[in-house]
Amino acid sequence: MKGTLSLGVDIGGTGVKLALVDGRGRIRRLQKFASPTKESPTEFLNIVGRWIRRFVGDRHLKTLRGIGLGVAGDVDHVHGRVRISPNLQWRNIPVKTLLRRYLPSIPFIIENDANAAAWAAYWVETHQRAKNLVCLTLGRGVGGGLVLNGVLYRGATGSAGEIGHMTIDLNGPACPCGSRGCIERYVGARALVERVRQAIEDGEQSLVTELVGNNFQAVTPLVIQQAAQRGDRLAQRIWREAGERLGVALASVVNLFNPERIILAGGVARAGRLILDPARRVMRQRAFPVPGHTVRVSLSQLDQDLGVVGAALLVP
Amino acid sequence: MKGTLSLGVDIGGTGVKLALVDGRGRIRRLQKFASPTKESPTEFLNIVGRWIRRFVGDRHLKTLRGIGLGVAGDVDHVHGRVRISPNLQWRNIPVKTLLRRYLPSIPFIIENDANAAAWAAYWVETHQRAKNLVCLTLGRGVGGGLVLNGVLYRGATGSAGEIGHMTIDLNGPACPCGSRGCIERYVGARALVERVRQAIEDGEQSLVTELVGNNFQAVTPLVIQQAAQRGDRLAQRIWREAGERLGVALASVVNLFNPERIILAGGVARAGRLILDPARRVMRQRAFPVPGHTVRVSLSQLDQDLGVVGAALLVP
């Protein structure tokens, strides 16, 4: 007999998360591992398969509704393959085939991690009320997921929702994706850290220098956030500029999707009002009035667990 | 008994079009009028109501499936109101209420004209095969409509799809919409004409001067197209630059929507390969590889009739 629990698996460049999730999106049990990124993709997935087998155990094996797996990258959810994952350095990996043997009789789906996050935001944070929702994960990269008309929107090949790679300045800095001026180049963690380092190298004084004891490898969005909260001018400016640029992108998102909700997650979003206030201000200035005033922009409550919960909830 | 014909009505800033359209989107009869823009909105709609009544006549009155009306502007399709139409200078007009009395017993729907155009492109040009389709109308303004998962996508308040007001340069020229660097400011007819005039004022030689007999009020996209086709350097550069900027926007559209098809219509699009070739090239350079190679970008065959046919086909 089928139970109400699903297993969510979130595979990222740094960590792998497993969670038993109930029908309302609540986590019943959670376990985290460091990603075995030194292994080949096949061995990586063998290791994850054994973790899953152990985590589920005999107790849940018979009643598990299914397994939902979220992976950072371009996912072919129909054939259960990862086409390409820059974070994991995977290319054309038949994830579903490799993992299925560890739990052969259980339904198994695979999805892009930002899509899974959007689904969790829709399901758990809006209780399926915001039928049109855009979720942005602001981390090392900037991922995006779309729920439109109450359905996860994937597009023709499952590649939709790459909001991080919308151009806001056609002559802007080059992006690893091959384009220029992508929003990821302004609000991704790497971009923020780069900007702070550059400014300090150029002679600006900042609390950041002190906070990292002159070790600029240790600069993170959290450090820049702490500096800003303690009144550091440079850090405050970096957040304001990042927020304003995010606002430009959100105005375009609002004009295109006219969503009820935009939900932000990820390490960079945790700076809260430092980035949210300027983003909302610029978004309202630039977007069309009706959709601009309809949309609510907020931080995710689930945040780091969005991906793993969403993957579980996507199991039919 | 209900027949298979619907009436499409397309209300724009310059013309009003009426068409009897069959279930496959073929126009059976078409009539065009100049928009009575000097009248108040109420009188404008009274005039259109009488045109409709006469056009439908007694013969079709009993069998008409319904009336679909497309209007340039922000349309509240639920309540049948135009919230705002900059082209028509309308604000909060209860179009449905005003028009219904002319044909009281017939189902009546109202939709944004670019949304209607997208629906016609999906229905007639792709035979409902391209489940995810983006339609851009490049005219005086740049409108957009979205068919996603085989459904017309409207968003929370019916305002979705304003692709013309996606920012490609955050510090670009101011747009009447209140934002900056919107794609409309680079590929709208007004922007093209402005750029040519400016270049000639700055001393550049161009065939355009000759074609309009020094009357720069007479410059249109068609004139710039003719100059380019006759080898004029300035005109060719203007089209190439417009196409490249359109390509930047299309790359973002591809990364966001991952559509099977992008269909371009409107006077500016009629320049054909002058604008399409650079747009496709830049789009492929900048978009993610899988969605960038999946999408097909083409000109509409129905073109000027997209709006009126789509409005008719939207009648349930």
Keywords:
Nucleotidyltransferase, domain 5, 13 strands, homodimer, five-stranded mixed beta sheet, alpha/beta
Describe it for me?
The structure is a homodimer of 316-residue chains. Chain A is of the alpha/beta class. Chain A folds into two domains: 6-120 and 305-313, Nucleotidyltransferase, domain 5 (2-Layer Sandwich), CATH 3.30.420.40; 128-300, ATPase, nucleotide binding domain (Nucleotidyltransferase, domain 5), CATH 3.30.420.40. Chain A is built from eleven helices and 13 strands. Chain A has helices at 41-61, 95-100, 113-125, 184-187, 189-201, 207-211, 221-229, 233-257, 273-286, 289-294, 306-313; strands at 6-11, 15-21, 27-34, 67-71, 74-76, 81-85, 90-93, 108-112, 133-138, 142-148, 151-152, 261-265, 296-299. In chain A, the strands form three sheets. In chain A, strands 3-2-1-4-8 form a five-stranded mixed sheet. In chain A, helix 3 (113-125) packs across helix 11 (306-313) and helix 8 (233-257) packs across helix 9 (273-286). The interface between A and B is large, with 50 and 50 residues.
What is the second-level CATH architecture of the largest domain in chain A? 2-Layer Sandwich
- Tally the beta strands of chain A: 13
Q: Tell me, what is the CATH class of the largest domain in chain A? A: Alpha Beta
What structural class should be given to the helix and strand makeup of chain A?
Answer: alpha/beta
End-to-end span of chain A in angstroms? 15 Å
- Greatest contact pair? A-B, 50 and 50 residues
How many structural domains does the protein architecture of chain A include? Answer: 2
Q: Helix tally of chain A?
A: 11
The Rg value of chain A, from CA coordinates, equals: 20 Å
Q: What is the CATH superfamily classification of the largest domain in chain A?
A: ATPase, nucleotide binding domain
Question: Could you describe the largest sheet of chain A, including whether it forms a barrel?
Answer: 5 strands, mixed
Q: pLDDT average of chain A, as an integer? A: 94
Strand order of the largest sheet of chain A: 3-2-1-4-8
Write the H/E string of chain A, N to C: EEEHEEEEHEHEEEHHHHHEHHEH
CATH topology of the largest domain in chain A: Nucleotidyltransferase, domain 5
Low-confidence stretches of chain A: none
Q: Which range best describes the helical content of chain A: under 10%, 10-25%, 25-40%, 40-55%, 55-70% or over 70%?
A: 25-40%
The fraction of residues in strands of chain A falls at: 15-25%
